[in-house]
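Field notebook, page 218. I keep forgetting to write these up properly, so this time I am using the form the group agreed on. The chain and the ligand, PMT, are recorded exactly as supplied. Prediction of the bound pose follows.
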Amino acid sequence: PEPPLLAGKTVTITAGPTREPLDPVRFISNHSSGKMGFALAEAALKLGATVNLISGPVTLTPPAGARVVKVESALEMRDAALTLAPHSDVFIGCAAVADYRAAAVAEQKIKKQGDELTLTLVKNPDIIAEVAALSTKRPYTVGFAAETQDVANYAKGKLTNKKLDMICANDVSREGLGFNSDHNALTLFWGNESLELPPCSKPELALTVMKSVATKLS
Ligand code: PMT
């Protein structure tokens, strides 16, 4: 049994990919499996928290005791996040949110046409930046940064630009770690400090992250 470091706290976590529809049968998405976000939810439950898990489309079974909100698109994830964040002590954005969606979703299946097809995409809202910008009832806000190069610098840039309290830098170019794997490694950055967490199973890593977050709450 783990010490109840998060007893009385509510933790809201986003997990998995989003799906951005193009027409009734097609979408744009990514390789996030939800494993890292679901492991964070399980870890927060172990530490005694009340847990909201906002999940994009994944095939995993959610941890018993988590309150699950299923969403598909970034806009749906944003609605759920902005509803729950003001009632949370901690918000963790582990989801791989699509940065762009189709400017218009075709009502009917897009027909095969010429040799090239151009899709127009528009920017999605930045969910975690909106949570971090809440003027009242702002939770302790933790982001993830999935990077394939210059990981620490890009991650620290996201910490600053999105005005987060902590960012978990995830080098997703490392073989056997990151997207869809059972193992991962992270470097946590907050203030002027950092903590490197070497490769281990996602459940183990998630517990270390949640314990680290718990110590930052007043
Ligand atoms: O799900 P798994 O297969 O277990 O893989 C885990 C993971 C690799 C997906 C996870 O560890 C991870 O790194 N998640 C973040 C993925 C991501 O999209 O990162 P980003 O650098 O593009 O986004 C930075 C932060 O902004 C993230 O907290 C993201 O949730 C958030 N964001 C991004 C875009 C957007 N429109 N709104 C957001 O809130």
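OBSERVATIONS:
- The first strand starts at residue 10 and ends at 15.
- The mean pLDDT is 97.
FOLLOW-UP: compare against the apo run.
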